[in-house]
Design goal:
By secondary structure, the protein is mostly helical. The chain has helices at about 5-10, 15-40, 50-55, 60-65, 70-80, 95-100, 105-135, 140-160, 170-180, 185-195, 200-215. The protein has 2 domains: about 15-85, Homeodomain-like (Arc Repressor Mutant, subunit A), CATH 1.10.10; about 90-215, Tetracycline Repressor, domain 2 (Orthogonal Bundle), CATH 1.10.357. Residues about 1-10 have low confidence and may be disordered.
């Protein structure tokens, strides 16, 4: 009796790493394409089909991976803010930890202002998109609420760990409110996008504004 060639060969182990890498690359193409289209056309004017075509994937893949346009937008915000897809809070990343370790309060605050300016330049246009689309799309409105809550939580944590020694006459909550308002993306948008300020001018202003409000 002739033996099957399959029965005489050792079983091959299945390696899913290639497929996982391909899936990750497809998701990244969706995120990159969606970000470009959302900013160029607007959220409402961009369809899932538009994103799928630009990313060379199927609409079904997008729905399965992101759940819809608001899900894509949420990932766009996360990755644009962090600069990558690492699941690490911005305040726990090396640059923020190095700033926290600066002994001189004024220099520490200046370093924080520069980091906030860089963050706003990177993610500010996307957050402005969330703001503008939130009133017309319930899912984006819910995303905006989550982002607002996360920003409040983040600025309060930063105030407690990095700005606790600046103004004894201000509570931690007051310091956090100043930081969230003055160094937030809406102020950046008002001055840089609407006001036509250069990024350098805005950064210098932010360093001075935070020092005046939280030190002087």
């Amino acid at each position: 009796m002739q033996m099957s060639s399959r029965s005489s060969s050792p079983p091959r182990s299945y390696d899913a790493r290639g497929r996982q890498a391909d899936a990750g690359a497809r998701r990244q193409r969706v995120i990159d394409s969606a970000r470009e289209l959302f900013l160029e056309r607007g959220f409402a004017a961009t369809s899932i089909a538009d994103v799928a075509e630009a990313a060379s994937v199927s609409p079904q893949m997008i729905y399965a991976s992101f759940g819809g346009k608001a899900g894509i937008l949420a990932r766009v915000v996360d990755i644009t803010a962090g600069g990558d897809d690492e699941n690490v809070l911005l305040r726990e990343r090396p640059a923020a930890l190095a700033t926290r370790a600066i002994d001189d309060p004024r220099e520490r605050l200046r370093a924080m202002a520069r980091q906030a300016a860089e963050l706003n330049e990177r993610v500010g246009p996307v957050l402005a998109l969330v703001d503008s689309a939130s009133s017309a799309d319930e899912s984006v409105g819910e995303l905006r609420e989550r982002i607002t809550s996360a920003i409040r939580e983040d600025t309060l944590a930063v105030a407690r760990t990095s700005l606790y020694d600046l103004r004894p006459d201000r509570t931690t909550e007051e310091v956090a409110d100043v930081l969230r308002t003055v160094a937030g993306h809406r102020t950046w948008h008002s001055l840089v996008v609407e006001g036509g300020w250069s990024q350098g001018r805005y950064t210098t202003w932010l360093e001075d504004a935070l020092a005046r409000l939280l030190l002087d």
